[in-house]
Specification:
Chain lengths: ~230, ~400
């Protein structure tokens, strides 16, 4: 299988005032199309930083980032926004739903960036909500949903525009074991049945077991001997 | 477009949940607009009253170079000569329809402090050529007696002026024998008496001005030119001739210019405050929505809809504030009658006039404040890197 994500000699430095901190050091990674990768490591090791580079939310200080067949480290922020809309779905730890919008309106958001008719958008929203098992909660506001349900809505939103890649930053970090496992099963199903490539940051070794591969990051470098499931 | 509308709509709907901070903007802008509209309505009302005074068909003759009737004085020998000038209408008996009038400011002695009132000595022709002047109570003053009639506004401004009441000024007692109205113009703030009575009481045999009605055989503008030319050509006279309406318009100009200047000055200062209030509110609104905005941008929304949504919020708040301010100004002030010192130091009663044009002006200030107050926070919202904004830092 071809690599959908390929990072080559990537360096990321943050500058705060006069201090420059190198967070990722010469990192090279390849992730195959259709893979489900768990990205693990201690707090502050650079997991979110790496995920943001893969998802096109940020640009590296040095090195090459190829994702979904495009070199994205050179794109302007406007071009990156368009690229993200086409290729990436994001899932966050705290769901990041719009509190004023119903579940279906939240899920519809990415489709507002497409040319789909409102009827088609409705169809796709219903389909995405059905995939995550929340079709009957379409009219509910985020405040009326449990954490697990809210994360399902967020996953539906990440799915609805049919991106190649799902990027999840601690998607179960705010959920109890049972609910977390349900969400992880859902991600697994999306990977296996719908062919989505998934990169998931997690602290939780149990969660990482749901993935097909694990990558361990420590102090901005990949640790040798990352477990391959 | 679709994305802009969706994001803006979403943002506006979340407004009620932030109503406490939003209230700051609304109240601040309501104050600015309220004060602006109230003050402008004052000058508008004043202008309205003075511009409504006078007629196209009458001329006012003043001593040359003066700008106001009060500072004008025409020698008694000149008065009969000026009456005979061409362009002035004559009555059936062939007498010119012109009233040589004396206008003085006099101190009305009262128990609760003295007040200045304008007293006008009017000749009989002065009543004839002013059809708008109507006696609504009592009777006209009689020549040779210390009797006067009071304008309707004067009775409202100064308590104790009624038919039958006695007024103390110029060392004697005057009887109020009637009340007149004149379509709410500036004369309604005056006391009128017989011209000869006024001349002797104040020891001034001449006139402040001569009010003359134009000959009707030509249009008023032509008659005015005829009269002007004839007076200017005669070396005996040092006299300016003005259309009566022009005179009162120019009287309002100085005062309204002053009010308008002060108004803009105060409004600018207050608007500064309101802009800072709006900026503050919108910065915190943007901060409160930081994650929301960052999430939208992560999904792929561009800066424009975010920018528009923030601007729309501040403009919406500003317009609500503007409408409240203009509404309060209208409720509190429209039609409210008050008195002011006129250009010529007479008290003129006038009504505040909150016109649609003034409301529009107030709202355009609100709009400006809202746009400035929203612009910089909006810019900040879209300038912050997405990855950083998502961390909630
Ligand atoms: N905008 C920034 N400016 C400066 N330093 C930053 C910035 N963002 C992150 N860092 C630093 O970079 C390092 C890596 O951060 P990152 O968020 O990628 O870690 P992480 O592995 O995701 O940690 P966690 O498990 O706590 O989420 C940390 O030391 C962090 O303080
Ligand atoms: Mg992290």
């Amino acid at each position: 299988m071809s690599a959908i994500v390929s990072l080559h000699n990537v360096v990321k430095t943050y500058t705060r005032g006069k201090q420059t901190v190198e967070v990722l050091h010469n990192l090279s990674i390849e992730i195959a199309q259709g893979d489900f990768v768990a990205l693990m490591g201690p707090s502050g090791s650079g997991k979110t930083t790496l995920l943001n580079l893969i998802g096109g939310l940020d640009r590296p200080s040095k090195g090459e980032v190829n994702v979904a067949g495009e070199r994205i480290d050179q794109l302007s922020s406007g071009q990156l926004a368009k690229w993200r809309a086409r290729h990436v779905g994001f899932v966050f730890q705290f769901y990041n739903l719009m509190p004023m919008l119903s579940a279906e309106r939240n899920v519809e958001l990415p489709l507002l960036l497409t040319n789909l008719s409102s009827a088609r958008r409705k169809q796709n929203v219903q389909a995405a909500l059905a995939v995550v098992g929340l079709a009957e909660r379409a009219k509910h506001k985020p405040a009326e949903l449990s954490g697990g349900q809210a994360q399902r809505v967020a996953i539906a939103r990440a799915l609805v525009a049919d991106p190649t890649l799902l990027v999840c930053d601690e998607p179960t970090g705010d959920l109890d074991r049972t609910t977390a496992d349900e969400i992880l099963h859902l991600l697994q199903m999306l990977n296996k049945d719908h062919g989505k490539t998934i990169v998931m940051v997690t602290h939780d070794p149990k969660a990482a077991e749901f993935a097909s591969h694990q990558l361990h990051l420590d102090k901005g470098q990949l640790v040798e001997g990352s477990v391959h499931a | 477009m679709k994305q802009t509308l969706a994001v803006t709509w979403m943002n506006l709907r979340s407004l009620p949940s932030r109503y406490m901070t939003s209230l700051v903007v609304v109240v601040g802008i309501a104050l600015v607009v309220g004060v602006l509209v109230a003050m402008l309505s004052m000058s508008k009302g004043f202008e309205h009253t003075l511009k409504g005074t006078g007629s196209e068909s009458r001329a006012l003759m003043l001593s040359a170079g003066v700008t106001a009737e009060l500072s004008s004085y025409i020698d008694p020998q000149m008065v009969p000569l000026l009456r005979e000038m061409p362009g002035i209408r004559r009555d059936a008996a062939g007498k010119p329809l012109a009233s040589a009038e004396l206008l003085v400011i006099t101190e009305l002695r009262r128990g609760d402090g003295d007040v200045n009132v304008a007293l006008r000595g009017v000749e009989p022709a002065g009543m004839t050529i002013r059809p708008e002047v109507k006696l609504v109570e009592g009777r006209l003053f009689k020549s040779g007696l210390r009797e006067l009639i009071a304008g309707r506004s004067a009775t409202r401004q100064f308590s104790g002026i009624n038919v039958g009441s006695k007024l103390q000024f110029r060392g004697s007692e005057w009887d109020v024998v009637g009340i007149f109205e004149s379509d709410g113009d500036a004369h309604e703030s005056e006391l009128w008496t017989d011209a000869d009575t006024a001349r002797s009481a104040f020891g001034r045999p001449g006139a402040s001005a001569i009010l003359a009605q134009f000959d009707t055989s030509t249009p008023p503008a032509v008659a005015l030119q005829t009269l002007k030319a004839a007076v200017a050509a005669d070396p005996r006279f040092q006299i300016d001739v003005l259309g009566e309406r022009d005179y009162y318009s120019s009287q309002s100009q100085g005062v309204t210019d002053n009010i308008n200047f002060i108004t803009v000055f105060i409004t600018v200062i207050m608007a500064f405050g309101a802009v800072f209030g709006a900026l503050n509110t919108m910065y915190s609104a943007v901060a409160a929505r930081q994650i929301e905005i960052a999430t939208l941008r992560a999904i792929g929304f561009s800066g424009l809809p975010v920018m528009v949504s923030v601007l729309a919020e501040s403009v919406a708040l500003a317009l609500i504030g503007g409408l409240i301010g203009a509404g309060c100004a209208w409720l509190l002030f429209d039609g409210l009658t008050t008195a002011t010192l006129g250009q010529n130091f007479t008290q003129v009663a006038f009504s505040f006039a909150v016109t649609p044009a003034l409301v529009a002006r107030g709202l355009s200030w609100a709009l400006g404040i809202g746009l400035i107050g929203g612009f910089f926070p909006a810019l900040k919202a879209i300038r912050q890197p997405v990855a950083e904004a998502l961390r909630g830092a």
